[in-house]
Amino acid sequence: MDMGEIIYNTVVLIGTAAFAVSGAMSAVSRKLDMFGVVFVGAVTALGGGVVRDVLLGNLPPVMFRNYSYLITAVFFSLAVFFSAYFFKEKYSASAAAIDKINNVFDAAGLGPFTVMGVDAAIASGFGSNCFFCIFLGMTTGIGGGIFRDMLTASTPSVLKKHIYAVASIAGACLYYFLYVFSFSSALSLIFSSLLVFLIRI
Questions:
Q1: What is the pTM of this model?
Q2: For the residues of 177-192, what is the DSSP string, one character each?
Q3: pLDDT tens digit sequence for 159-196
Q4: Which among 23, 48, 123, 127 is least buried, having the fewest CB atoms inside 10 angstroms?
Q5: CA neighbor of 145 nearest in space, from 159, 131, 132
Q6: Cα–Cα distance list, 191 to 67, 137, 197 (Å)
């Protein structure tokens, strides 16, 4: 495994953990039980990837073949659940701060997943189809968040005040055009994810 693959896998796992935390925190705020928190956390972390794989005809989806993503999502979802359970009073008293923290984790997950979608389209032979690559990047990035909001009976963030899809599209465009100009894939991943994070924040 070369350095580029190590960086890619590390960033993707960070994104998975961030989205899982975001989903689990939303579930806790809706007072779901442990299974509900883990389920929403896992769906948030993995839902966009499943949609991506279905659109690419890559079946079964990666989450059913590489369990590192699922294990990461479950672990961090449980960490959120037990933190909220054992420190219930402090957790409840910090609702405003928790919402801001949730926003940061959501932003941190959006970048890597956007890049994963573009990269998957390119790897599947669609590198010449600019629109599809960028669309798949956006769909992978925002898909889990949409599932999270639907499961917790909230209006999807992508449809309201948060800059969500626009940030994902910007990162997808940057990653795609860096690919066109044969820029370093590892640096493209980092720059594109950082752009999404900064715009989303």
A1: 0.85
A2: HHHHTT--HHHHHHHH
A3: 876 688 899 999 999 999 999 998 888 888 889 999 99
A4: 123
A5: 159
A6: 27, 15, 10
CA distance 125 to 148: 30
**Of residues 132, 37, 113, the one with CA closest to residue 75:** 37
Q: Can you spell out the DSSP letters for 64-92?
A: GT-HHHHHHHHHHHHHHHHHHHHTHHHHH
What residue ranges of the chain have pLDDT lower than 50? none
- The region that residue 125 occupies, defined by phi over 0 for left and psi between -120 and 50 for alpha, beta otherwise, is left
CB atoms within 10 A of CB 159: 11
Return the number of other C-beta atoms located less than 10 Å from residue 74's C-beta: 18
- Amino acid identity, position 178: L
Place of tokens 């640096």: 187
Per-residue burial over 3-34, b = 16 or more CB atoms within 10 Å of its CB, e = otherwise: eeeebbeebbbbbbbbbbbbbbbbbbbeebee
Which 8-state DSSP code applies to residue 33?
Answer: -
CB atoms within 10 A of CB 138: 27
Helix (H) or strand (E) run with residue 200 in it: helix 185-200
